[in-house]
Design brief:
Blueprint (H helix, E strand, L loop, with lengths): L6 H17 L3 E5 L2 E8 L2 E8 L7 E5 L2 H20 L12 H16 L5 E8 L2 E9 L4 H8 L6 E3 L4 E3 L12 E7 L2 H4 L18 H10 L8 E7 L7 H4 E6 L4 H9 L5 E5 L4 E6 L5 H6 L3 E3 L7 E5 L3 H9 L4 E4 L27 E2 L3 E9 L10 E3 L2 H15 L8 E9 L5 E7 L15 H5 L9 E2 L17 H4 L5 H13 L7 H9 L6 H14 L1
Parallel strand pairs: 6-9, 12-16
Antiparallel strand pairs: 1-2, 2-3, 3-4, 5-6, 7-8, 10-11, 12-13, 13-15, 14-15, 17-22, 18-19, 18-20, 20-21
Length: 539
């Protein structure tokens, strides 16, 4: 029998079933997503129910009394109430599936990052998974969009093991199994392939005009509304067509953007109207980047008015209040008056008395990236990239200050990626704590270089004196609690119990091992067998 393939087919079959039941004397009641049919035939009562758009009934019973049937219908309605309640979150809104929530978050983030680009973001579920698909024309490049949406995919398919691995699972954002992106060319862009016809070799598939254009297109951000699209040379010395050529275009004149670019003063911050629904904050925004991010701003270096932070217009009052407490903004294109607050320019956050590295110098750091961290999200350093070790120390100090300062226990986990020039990137987890000499990291007491120097950073550092293996237990890794904790600390004592349980002391005679067992110390069965066998042989 051929299965039901479409919603239209299911709807037709359900309608035919319902019509047949009504012709046979059934009464119909619809309760939320459930259709209930009942009838009496002599001394019997019959009930049949369907849910949603399914063509199969959820039950079909006969009853000996009206009370029994009414009780069953009551239970069915109560189940529908509970089922509906599970779909409502604590705020009274409809609870979204994980892939629908991921699609919503992606849609909002892309709208903020690229307000003038129209994205189509759809989600779907299928057997063994779900996915989100992002489609758009021209606009941002695939790379720019992927940098935003990739975090919403919780893993990847490993072709070597033929398995899907949860390699990017996060609890702070909704995620889906796959996020697919597809950027298409407008007809105006496709016409540019004519430029490459004289460079094309008919026998070379890779260098056909349309394929050359595709590679050039992949590297070019094209603003919606672009006019006079054309191909221009960029670098005569590049070894590839996509390196030599780019897609150039003109944008309609916008007085607000032009004024913002031409009139902004050094050290100033300005709010400009970017589109009908968005505004941009541009200028010397680095000192307040964390505050701009905390109120929902997204930094975009490709804005037509220059690099800056993009916001929906509904955030204007929040931005104005923020700037009034930090610096005096210019307001080009916004119907408001300049603030009269303090005229002093805000400087980059300063952290005084930071510890300095003691024995190591690291001159060849390429980047230090914080992949994610626990704790309060203000400031939020997730995906932050640093190329200066002192800036790394400041970031860890801030995380310690808002999460662990003054706390007697606990720690904040930070996962990092560290890359030195000429060597592969390595990842590590750093635990920030307020305690001292317990094996974790207190950035107010120690420099991050000193904490890391004995392990993964040895490849990239220049050490003044050869590093010594100071481990008490050489068979254990460098940062095992038994190697780095104070023997008087609770963490050391707990780790020692675990270690002794896995590596019990070896006893030489039956008296000692018996006494150890009676006192609650762990003993090895193999050790006991050896002692017994030895004494038996000697006897």
């Amino acid at each position: 029998m051929q299965g039901i393939q479409t919603k239209e087919q299911r709807t037709n079959i359900r309608a035919a079933q319902f019509e047949s039941l009504l012709k046979n004397g059934y009464s119909r009641e619809t309760y939320k997503t459930c259709d209930i049919f009942t009838k009496q035939d002599g001394c019997k009562w019959y009930a049949k129910a369907f849910r949603g758009t399914s063509t199969n009934q959820i039950f079909y019973y006969s009853f000996n009394s009206l009370e029994r049937m009414e009780q069953k219908i009551k239970e069915t309605k109560e189940f529908e109430d509970r089922r509906e309640q599970r779909k409502i979150d604590e705020k009274g809104n409809k609870r979204l599936s994980s892939h629908a929530a991921a699609a919503k978050a992606i849609r909002e983030e892309l709208k903020t990052a690229f307000p003038s680009v129209k994205f189509s973001v759809t989600s779907e579920s299928f057997s063994m998974g779900n996915s989100v698909r992002v489609d758009w024309t021209n606009g941002a490049t695939e790379k720019q969009v992927s940098e935003i949406v990739s975090k919403y995919q919780y893993g990847h398919f490993d072709g070597m093991s033929d398995m899907y691995e949860n390699s990017n699972s996060r609890d702070d954002i909704p995620q889906t199994k796959y996020v697919q992106t597809s950027r298409s060319m407008s007809e105006e862009v496709k016409q540019l392939s004519q430029f490459f016809e004289h460079l094309s070799n008919g026998n070379d598939w890779e260098n056909r005009p349309e394929n050359i254009l595709y590679r050039v297109f992949n590297k070019c951000h094209i603003e919606p509304g672009a006019q006079n699209l054309r191909i221009e040379r960029t670098n005569e010395n590049s070894g590839s067509f996509e390196g030599i050529y780019t897609i150039a275009y003109d944008l309609p004149e916008n007085e607000n953007r032009k004024a913002a670019v031409n009139q902004i003063e050094p050290g100033k911050v300005q709010i400009v109207e970017y589109s009908e629904k968005s505004i941009a904050v541009i200028g010397e925004t680095y000192p307040i980047k964390d505050k701009l991010k905390s109120i929902g701003g997204k930094f975009n270096k490709f804005l037509s008015c220059g690099a800056g932070w993009i916001f929906p217009k509904s955030k204007f009052e929040d931005i104005k209040n923020l700037l009034s407490n930090t610096t005096k903004p210019g307001t080009q294109g916004i119907d408001s008056e300049p603030t009269n607050e303090s005229k002093e320019q805000t400087k980059a956050p300063q952290v005084s008395n930071l510890p300095e590295p003691l024995t190591a110098k690291y001159k060849n750091l390429e980047y230090f990236k914080i992949l994610w961290h626990e704790g309060h999200q203000t400031p939020n350093f997730t995906d932050a990239i640093f190329t200066n070790w002192q800036e790394v120390q400041k970031a860890f100090y801030k995380l310690w200050e808002v999460n662990e300062k003054g706390q007697d226990g606990g720690y904040t986990k930070v996962k990092c990626e560290i890359k030195f020039k000429g060597v592969d990137a390595v990842t590590d987890r750093i635990d920030i704590t307020n305690r001292v000499n317990n094996g974790d990291f207190n950035p107010s007491q120690m420099h991050v270089l000193e904490y890391l120097r004995q392990t993964i950073l040895e490849e990239g550092e220049e050490i003044e004196e050869p590093a010594k293996d100071w481990r008490k237990h050489p068979e254990l890794e460098h940062r095992h609690p038994l190697n780095i904790c104070d023997p008087e600390s609770n963490q050391y004592k707990e780790a020692l119990k675990e270690y002794e349980a896995e590596h019990p002391k070896k006893y030489k005679n039956i008296i000692d091992i018996t006494a150890a067992a009676k006192s609650g110390k762990p003993i090895s069965i193999y050790n006991l067998f050896d002692i017994v066998n030895t004494q038996t042989v000697n006897a």
